[in-house]
């Protein structure tokens, strides 16, 4: 009975996270018009049209990639980096997205060196797969571990016991990696303004710890109302910023 309960927990824990996208209205014409605007050099119009598609709930690496390119052509570095990173969520192995993101990052004045831990590096390995692929991978391991556990109920041998225990250990580790990554993926942001102050607290009279410039990337770690969020940089520095100069 415990094996059956474990299987259902695995399966239903995946459903709310959006393994299957909800249907949306057909925006093919808008996409075609946005591509035309981009090709004609009307980047503000292309941005408006691509954004219209995104606001309808469409989750597409191609849309965010095109939007990032339009922003890059419009010299809006922060928005370009943000949308290139969004594009990688849906097309993590696309070389064009990877190249354009690297190209945009070269233009950022803040060179923040990463001091990631071994756990953070392990989490980053999951970025090689899309969200849907990660969920399918977890579901596969749920079914695989359940099958080996069921087999061991009928074949009481050391090899089946070892296979069952190993599969459940891999299952726990993979689920931990996948669901931790799902949570952290929603928290990145980018500076949009030429310069922004990072404070020690969520008040303007707090001490200014350091400043960031357009294109600087961060992770959101906390929030205070709608105007302030706490950020963490790749090198471990933390502070509070006003949301009016960032996108996240």
Could you describe the 3D structure shown?
The chain is an alpha+beta fold. The chain folds into three domains: 28-106, Tetratricopeptide repeat domain (Serine Threonine Protein Phosphatase 5, Tetratricopeptide repeat), CATH 1.25.40; 117-185; 188-247, Roll (SH3 type barrels). It is 55% helix and 14% strand. It is built from nine helices and seven strands. The strands form two sheets. A five-stranded antiparallel sheet has the order 6-5-4-1-7. Strand 5 and strand 6 form a beta hairpin. Helix 1 runs antiparallel to helix 8. The radius of gyration is 22 Å and the shape is globular. 26% of the residues are buried. Residues 1-9 and 11-24 have low confidence and may be disordered.
Per-chain topology:
Blueprint: H1 2-14, H2 28-39, H3 43-55, H4 61-73, H5 77-90, H6 95-106, H7 118-125, H8 131-154, H9 158-185, E1 188-191, E2 195-199, E3 208-213, E4 217-224, E5 228-232, E6 238-242, E7 246-247
Antiparallel strand pairs: 1-4, 1-7, 2-3, 4-5, 5-6
Helix pairs in contact: 1-8, 2-3, 3-4, 4-5, 5-6, 8-9
